[in-house]
Design brief:
Number of helices: 7
Number of strands: 2
Strand content: under 5%
Structural class: mainly alpha
Largest sheet: 2 strands, antiparallel
Distance between the termini: 37 Å
Helix content: 40-55%
Order of helices and strands: HHHHHHEEH
Radius of gyration: 20 Å
Length: about 190
Amino acid sequence: MKGKDVEVEWKPFELRPEPVPPLDPSGDYIQNAWKHSVKPLSEKLGVPMNFPPVQPRTHLAFEGFQYAKEQGKANEYNHRMLVAFFVEGQDLGDVDVLVRLAEEVGLDADGYREAVESRRYKDTHKAALNEAAAKDIRAVPTFFIGDRKLQGLYPADRLTQIIDAELEKQGTAESEEGLSCDIDGC
């Protein structure tokens, strides 16, 4: 967040991990959710989104995220994947698509492909899903700011208030430490 001393750490979360079947793009549920919730909200927020023609399994994209994270490209990778899916309608379950997108953000195509095809990050991804389950995360987006869990979209000004309160709390906690003496003096 601009102007704030905060860091965003992306964590993987699959809405429908195996064995839960993916949604049928032509099904009533997803069509209604898109028409009555997602699209109106994207228009209100000025965020371009198009109905994704596919509902892929995303575990490989999330495993590729771990590779991108190790390469210092996590934010660029996530942004590219979101645009590819929600704006361009690309299939994030297709390894060739993933490799091309990873290369677009500056990742080594061969290294990325090897990491995804070998499932090198399968256990890391599974651990991230287990962490989400342990924290009772059931929806996206979910934010943790300090000890506070926020599920759903919040207006930017409300997020700013919550972040400011957390930063103030952290600053107050440091200033409330009592005077102490150590070997170097008081």
